[in-house]
Amino acid sequence: MPELPEVEALVQDLRGRLVGRAISRVDLTAFSALKTFDPPLNALHGTLVDEVTRHGKFLDVDASGVHVVIHLARAGWIRWRDEVPALPARPNPKNPLAARIVIDDPDLDVQPGLDITEAGTKKGLAIYVVRDPQEVPGVARLGPDPLSDDFTREALAEILEREGRKQIKGVMRMQSIIAGIGNAYSDEILHAARMSPFKPANSLDETELQTLYDAVRGTLGDAVRRSAGLAASQLKGEKKTNLAVHGRTGEKCPVCGDVVREVSFADSSLQYCPTCQTGGKPLADRRMSRLLK
Protein backbone atom coordinates (compact mmCIF):
# COMPACT_ATOMS: atom_id res chain seq x y z
CA MET A 1 0.00 0.00 0.00
CA PRO A 2 1.37 3.45 -0.88
CA GLU A 3 2.08 5.38 2.31
CA LEU A 4 3.07 8.95 3.10
CA PRO A 5 6.51 8.97 1.38
CA GLU A 6 5.23 7.43 -1.87
CA VAL A 7 2.15 9.65 -2.01
CA GLU A 8 4.32 12.71 -1.31
CA ALA A 9 6.62 11.70 -4.18
CA LEU A 10 3.60 11.24 -6.44
CA VAL A 11 2.44 14.73 -5.49
CA GLN A 12 5.80 16.23 -6.40
CA ASP A 13 5.94 14.34 -9.70
CA LEU A 14 2.36 15.15 -10.71
CA ARG A 15 2.63 18.77 -9.63
CA GLY A 16 5.29 19.30 -12.27
CA ARG A 17 3.25 17.47 -14.91
CA LEU A 18 -0.25 18.82 -14.25
CA VAL A 19 -0.23 22.32 -12.75
CA GLY A 20 -1.23 24.90 -15.34
CA ARG A 21 -2.60 22.34 -17.76
CA ALA A 22 -6.23 21.72 -18.67
CA ILE A 23 -8.22 18.54 -18.15
CA SER A 24 -9.85 17.48 -21.39
CA ARG A 25 -11.95 14.64 -20.02
CA VAL A 26 -12.12 11.94 -17.37
CA ASP A 27 -12.89 8.33 -18.36
CA LEU A 28 -14.31 6.13 -15.61
CA THR A 29 -13.91 2.41 -16.24
CA ALA A 30 -14.44 1.00 -12.73
CA PHE A 31 -17.72 2.55 -11.64
CA SER A 32 -17.43 1.24 -8.08
CA ALA A 33 -14.28 3.34 -7.58
CA LEU A 34 -16.20 6.63 -7.82
CA LYS A 35 -17.67 7.40 -4.40
CA THR A 36 -19.43 10.70 -5.15
CA PHE A 37 -21.98 12.05 -7.64
CA ASP A 38 -22.04 15.81 -7.03
CA PRO A 39 -20.18 17.47 -8.68
CA PRO A 40 -20.36 15.06 -11.64
CA LEU A 41 -17.21 13.87 -13.41
CA ASN A 42 -17.90 16.14 -16.36
CA ALA A 43 -17.52 19.15 -14.03
CA LEU A 44 -13.78 18.56 -14.46
CA HIS A 45 -13.87 18.88 -18.24
CA GLY A 46 -12.15 22.08 -19.35
CA THR A 47 -10.83 22.94 -15.88
CA LEU A 48 -7.27 24.08 -15.22
CA VAL A 49 -5.15 22.24 -12.66
CA ASP A 50 -4.16 24.73 -9.97
CA GLU A 51 -2.40 22.47 -7.47
CA VAL A 52 -1.61 18.90 -6.47
CA THR A 53 -1.41 18.22 -2.74
CA ARG A 54 -1.66 15.41 -0.19
CA HIS A 55 -3.78 14.69 2.90
CA GLY A 56 -2.20 11.71 4.66
CA LYS A 57 -2.38 8.94 2.05
CA PHE A 58 -4.98 10.82 -0.03
CA LEU A 59 -3.87 12.50 -3.28
CA ASP A 60 -5.67 15.75 -4.13
CA VAL A 61 -5.79 17.35 -7.60
CA ASP A 62 -7.37 20.82 -7.43
CA ALA A 63 -8.78 21.79 -10.84
CA SER A 64 -10.41 25.23 -10.83
CA GLY A 65 -11.91 24.61 -7.41
CA VAL A 66 -13.10 21.06 -8.16
CA HIS A 67 -11.02 18.47 -6.32
CA VAL A 68 -10.24 14.94 -7.46
CA VAL A 69 -9.27 13.14 -4.25
CA ILE A 70 -7.80 9.66 -4.70
CA HIS A 71 -7.06 6.94 -2.15
CA LEU A 72 -4.98 4.19 -3.75
CA ALA A 73 -5.78 1.54 -1.09
CA ARG A 74 -3.68 -1.64 -1.18
CA ALA A 75 -3.19 -2.22 -4.89
CA GLY A 76 -3.89 1.12 -6.55
CA TRP A 77 -1.34 3.14 -8.46
CA ILE A 78 -0.99 6.09 -10.82
CA ARG A 79 0.83 5.99 -14.14
CA TRP A 80 1.66 8.96 -16.31
CA ARG A 81 1.31 8.36 -20.04
CA ASP A 82 2.84 10.66 -22.65
CA GLU A 83 0.09 9.61 -25.03
CA VAL A 84 -3.34 8.16 -24.32
CA PRO A 85 -5.77 6.75 -26.91
CA ALA A 86 -8.03 9.26 -28.59
CA LEU A 87 -11.13 7.14 -27.89
CA PRO A 88 -12.48 7.11 -24.32
CA ALA A 89 -11.50 4.13 -22.20
CA ARG A 90 -14.23 1.54 -21.66
CA PRO A 91 -14.88 -0.87 -18.78
CA ASN A 92 -12.93 -4.10 -19.09
CA PRO A 93 -12.79 -6.60 -16.20
CA LYS A 94 -9.42 -7.87 -17.45
CA ASN A 95 -7.88 -4.39 -17.46
CA PRO A 96 -6.65 -2.87 -14.14
CA LEU A 97 -7.52 0.63 -15.39
CA ALA A 98 -10.05 2.28 -13.07
CA ALA A 99 -10.04 5.82 -14.46
CA ARG A 100 -8.10 8.02 -16.85
CA ILE A 101 -7.58 11.78 -16.65
CA VAL A 102 -6.82 13.14 -20.12
CA ILE A 103 -4.84 16.37 -20.43
CA ASP A 104 -5.49 18.91 -23.19
CA ASP A 105 -2.15 20.30 -24.38
CA PRO A 106 -2.36 22.50 -27.52
CA ASP A 107 1.42 22.40 -27.87
CA LEU A 108 1.39 18.64 -28.47
CA ASP A 109 0.05 16.56 -31.33
CA VAL A 110 -1.03 13.88 -28.85
CA GLN A 111 -2.91 13.95 -25.57
CA PRO A 112 -1.03 12.90 -22.43
CA GLY A 113 -2.84 11.62 -19.39
CA LEU A 114 -2.95 9.95 -16.04
CA ASP A 115 -4.02 6.33 -15.62
CA ILE A 116 -5.39 5.33 -12.21
CA THR A 117 -5.12 1.56 -11.88
CA GLU A 118 -5.85 -1.16 -9.34
CA ALA A 119 -4.46 -4.68 -9.50
CA GLY A 120 -6.03 -7.81 -8.03
CA THR A 121 -9.60 -8.81 -7.26
CA LYS A 122 -10.02 -7.04 -3.90
CA LYS A 123 -11.07 -3.54 -4.88
CA GLY A 124 -10.48 -0.69 -2.44
CA LEU A 125 -9.45 2.18 -4.72
CA ALA A 126 -11.58 5.27 -4.06
CA ILE A 127 -12.06 8.40 -6.18
CA TYR A 128 -13.97 11.41 -4.90
CA VAL A 129 -14.96 14.52 -6.88
CA VAL A 130 -15.73 17.25 -4.36
CA ARG A 131 -15.66 21.02 -3.90
CA ASP A 132 -13.78 20.73 -0.61
CA PRO A 133 -11.45 17.85 0.40
CA GLN A 134 -13.02 17.92 3.87
CA GLU A 135 -16.16 16.47 2.26
CA VAL A 136 -14.26 13.18 1.96
CA PRO A 137 -14.94 11.29 5.22
CA GLY A 138 -11.45 9.76 5.35
CA VAL A 139 -9.81 13.18 4.95
CA ALA A 140 -12.04 14.81 7.55
CA ARG A 141 -11.06 12.15 10.12
CA LEU A 142 -7.30 12.37 9.61
CA GLY A 143 -4.99 12.94 12.54
CA PRO A 144 -1.92 15.22 12.33
CA ASP A 145 0.62 14.76 9.57
CA PRO A 146 3.85 13.41 11.12
CA LEU A 147 6.03 15.62 8.91
CA SER A 148 4.14 18.84 9.64
CA ASP A 149 5.49 21.54 11.93
CA ASP A 150 2.57 20.89 14.29
CA PHE A 151 3.71 17.33 14.91
CA THR A 152 6.01 18.03 17.83
CA ARG A 153 7.42 15.72 20.48
CA GLU A 154 4.80 17.10 22.85
CA ALA A 155 2.02 16.36 20.33
CA LEU A 156 3.22 12.76 20.06
CA ALA A 157 3.32 12.46 23.85
CA GLU A 158 -0.29 13.64 24.09
CA ILE A 159 -1.37 11.13 21.44
CA LEU A 160 0.30 8.19 23.17
CA GLU A 161 -1.08 9.13 26.57
CA ARG A 162 -4.57 9.47 25.14
CA GLU A 163 -4.41 6.03 23.50
CA GLY A 164 -3.58 4.37 26.82
CA ARG A 165 -2.66 0.68 26.75
CA LYS A 166 -3.25 0.18 23.03
CA GLN A 167 -0.37 -1.52 21.21
CA ILE A 168 1.91 1.08 19.69
CA LYS A 169 1.97 -0.63 16.29
CA GLY A 170 -1.81 -0.18 15.97
CA VAL A 171 -1.64 3.40 17.18
CA MET A 172 0.97 4.28 14.54
CA ARG A 173 -1.21 2.82 11.78
CA MET A 174 -4.53 4.42 12.75
CA GLN A 175 -5.12 7.27 10.28
CA SER A 176 -7.42 9.18 12.63
CA ILE A 177 -4.57 9.28 15.16
CA ILE A 178 -1.55 9.94 12.90
CA ALA A 179 -2.00 10.44 9.15
CA GLY A 180 -0.02 8.67 6.47
CA ILE A 181 1.76 5.82 8.27
CA GLY A 182 0.76 2.30 7.24
CA ASN A 183 1.90 -1.24 7.87
CA ALA A 184 5.32 -0.94 6.22
CA TYR A 185 6.55 2.31 7.73
CA SER A 186 5.18 1.50 11.19
CA ASP A 187 7.39 -1.61 11.11
CA GLU A 188 10.34 0.49 9.95
CA ILE A 189 9.79 3.23 12.54
CA LEU A 190 9.54 0.76 15.42
CA HIS A 191 12.66 -1.05 14.23
CA ALA A 192 14.55 2.25 14.07
CA ALA A 193 13.30 3.06 17.59
CA ARG A 194 14.27 -0.45 18.82
CA MET A 195 10.76 -0.86 20.21
CA SER A 196 8.37 -3.81 20.38
CA PRO A 197 5.27 -3.42 18.19
CA PHE A 198 3.17 -4.58 21.15
CA LYS A 199 4.51 -2.04 23.66
CA PRO A 200 1.61 -0.11 25.29
CA ALA A 201 1.36 3.40 23.88
CA ASN A 202 1.35 5.17 27.25
CA SER A 203 4.25 3.20 28.75
CA LEU A 204 7.13 5.15 27.16
CA ASP A 205 9.54 7.01 29.38
CA GLU A 206 11.05 10.33 28.29
CA THR A 207 14.02 8.74 26.54
CA GLU A 208 11.83 6.27 24.66
CA LEU A 209 9.46 9.05 23.65
CA GLN A 210 12.31 11.10 22.15
CA THR A 211 13.67 8.01 20.39
CA LEU A 212 10.28 7.20 18.86
CA TYR A 213 9.73 10.80 17.79
CA ASP A 214 13.13 10.91 16.12
CA ALA A 215 12.40 7.58 14.40
CA VAL A 216 9.09 8.84 13.02
CA ARG A 217 10.55 12.05 11.61
CA GLY A 218 13.79 10.42 10.48
CA THR A 219 12.34 7.33 8.81
CA LEU A 220 9.61 9.20 6.94
CA GLY A 221 11.81 12.19 6.14
CA ASP A 222 14.58 10.00 4.73
CA ALA A 223 12.06 8.08 2.60
CA VAL A 224 10.63 11.32 1.21
CA ARG A 225 14.10 12.63 0.37
CA ARG A 226 15.09 9.38 -1.36
CA SER A 227 11.90 9.47 -3.42
CA ALA A 228 12.17 13.11 -4.46
CA GLY A 229 12.54 13.47 -8.19
CA LEU A 230 11.65 9.87 -8.97
CA ALA A 231 8.96 9.07 -11.49
CA ALA A 232 5.93 7.10 -10.35
CA SER A 233 7.27 3.99 -12.07
CA GLN A 234 10.37 4.01 -9.84
CA LEU A 235 8.76 4.53 -6.45
CA LYS A 236 7.74 0.97 -5.57
CA GLY A 237 11.23 -0.35 -6.25
CA GLU A 238 12.83 2.44 -4.24
CA LYS A 239 10.62 1.70 -1.25
CA LYS A 240 11.22 -2.05 -1.26
CA THR A 241 14.98 -1.67 -1.63
CA ASN A 242 15.31 0.50 1.45
CA LEU A 243 13.09 -1.34 3.92
CA ALA A 244 15.04 -2.82 6.84
CA VAL A 245 12.52 -5.35 8.23
CA HIS A 246 9.13 -4.99 6.56
CA GLY A 247 8.59 -7.72 4.00
CA ARG A 248 11.94 -9.30 4.88
CA THR A 249 10.90 -12.29 6.98
CA GLY A 250 13.75 -14.81 7.26
CA GLU A 251 16.42 -12.35 6.13
CA LYS A 252 19.14 -10.89 8.34
CA CYS A 253 18.51 -7.68 10.23
CA PRO A 254 20.80 -5.03 8.69
CA VAL A 255 21.60 -3.68 12.17
CA CYS A 256 22.41 -6.76 14.27
CA GLY A 257 22.31 -9.75 11.89
CA ASP A 258 19.53 -11.59 13.72
CA VAL A 259 16.78 -13.19 11.63
CA VAL A 260 13.78 -10.95 10.88
CA ARG A 261 10.59 -12.58 12.16
CA GLU A 262 6.91 -12.19 11.41
CA VAL A 263 3.59 -12.13 13.21
CA SER A 264 0.63 -12.95 10.95
CA PHE A 265 -2.94 -11.76 11.39
CA ALA A 266 -6.12 -12.42 9.43
CA ASP A 267 -5.39 -9.92 6.65
CA SER A 268 -1.93 -8.54 7.36
CA SER A 269 1.40 -9.24 9.02
CA LEU A 270 4.17 -7.36 10.76
CA GLN A 271 7.92 -7.90 10.71
CA TYR A 272 10.42 -7.17 13.48
CA CYS A 273 13.88 -8.03 14.77
CA PRO A 274 13.89 -9.84 18.15
CA THR A 275 17.39 -8.65 19.10
CA CYS A 276 16.74 -5.01 18.23
CA GLN A 277 13.16 -4.75 19.44
CA THR A 278 12.06 -7.38 21.96
CA GLY A 279 15.14 -8.19 24.02
CA GLY A 280 15.74 -11.34 22.00
CA LYS A 281 12.31 -12.78 22.79
CA PRO A 282 10.20 -13.93 19.82
CA LEU A 283 6.60 -12.79 19.58
CA ALA A 284 3.87 -15.45 19.42
CA ASP A 285 2.70 -15.73 15.83
CA ARG A 286 -1.02 -15.76 16.47
CA ARG A 287 -3.75 -13.17 16.69
CA MET A 288 -3.66 -11.05 19.83
CA SER A 289 -0.01 -11.99 20.23
CA ARG A 290 1.95 -11.02 23.29
CA LEU A 291 5.57 -11.48 24.23
CA LEU A 292 6.32 -15.07 25.08
CA LYS A 293 7.29 -15.41 28.71
Portion of residues within helices: 25-40%
**Name of the CATH class of the largest domain:** Mainly Alpha
Low-confidence stretches: 288-293
Distance between the termini: 33 Å
Largest sheet: 4 strands, antiparallel
* Average pLDDT rating: 93
Structural class: alpha+beta
Rg is 21 Å
CATH fold call of the largest domain: Helicase, Ruva Protein, domain 3
Shape: elongated
Strand content: 15-25%
Q: Give the second-level CATH assignment, the architecture of the largest domain.
A: Orthogonal Bundle
Strand arrangement across the biggest beta sheet: 1-6-7-5
Number of strands: 10
Order of helices and strands: HEEEEEEEEHHHHHHEEH
- How many helices does DSSP assign? 8
Number of domains: 2
Task: Summarize the helices and strands and which ones pair or pack.
Elements: H1 4-18, E1 22-28, E2 49-55, E3 58-63, E4 66-71, E5 76-81, E6 97-104, E7 113-118, E8 126-130, H2 137-140, H3 153-163, H4 168-173, H5 183-192, H6 206-227, H7 232-241, E9 261-264, E10 269-272, H8 274-277
